[in-house]
Amino acid sequence: MKKKLANQLIMVFLLGFILVSQAQSGSREDIALETMYYVSLANAAYFDRDYKKAIPFYEKALALEKKVPTLEKNMWRVVVDNLGMSYGLTGNLKKAKKTFEYGLSKDDKYPNFYYNLACAYAEMNDPDQAILNLKRAFQFRENIIPGEEMPDPATDGSFARYLKNEKFQRTLEELKAPNPVSVRSALVAGDVEIKIPGQGWSIFFDAPPLSGKRESRHPLQYSYYANSGRFNISLFVEEPRAEGVTNEDVYLFYGPLVIQN
To answer: What predicted TM-score, i.e. pTM, was given to this entire model?
Structure first.
């Protein structure tokens, strides 16, 4: 049932949701905002595990990014990675493989592209290529995005059929040395306070060290963006202008306005 939003509309989007703010003049800014809009829709569907719905939004975002690059490096990695995984999780292994290969053509030291390409090859019954790409993934494990951890192929369903394969078992042993297969970045969460200008109140939360902080202030609205690797936070506060109760309601109302502006 629809109901009025509160006196102040607050949207805090975590794990890759991107800032949606008022567009500035110029085609690059317009494309950047449109790309952010589609990434936000894609992420909303992806984290709801609606991979089929996420695919066209990621495709639109990536098409815009190829035309005019505007995404921060780690967010671009996430978009390509999530698109490839969405293909794979909906059974389109050929497109998944092509997507991860595209990612590697632009960034050949990001381990998750190799790892997920290995998963695609494993699902396509090509154990040799799966093993080759697993080794490459762990070769570049130090390039994992802060806050991520390397997956464990010994517990990954994509490789389940090879767990009794002698060559695959030897590969697993090699990947465990000298470091454990699961490598967690050492990030210590700290207190973060965002003061909402002119309102006399703040938002508090715990987060890893944040970088790339940006703020935008306009009459009756305020926006904030920061990130720490794959972890992103965006905040948008304004006087309510719409009805709705879900993130998708908000996106559908505000997205076209952002693009038009």
So the answer is: 0.64
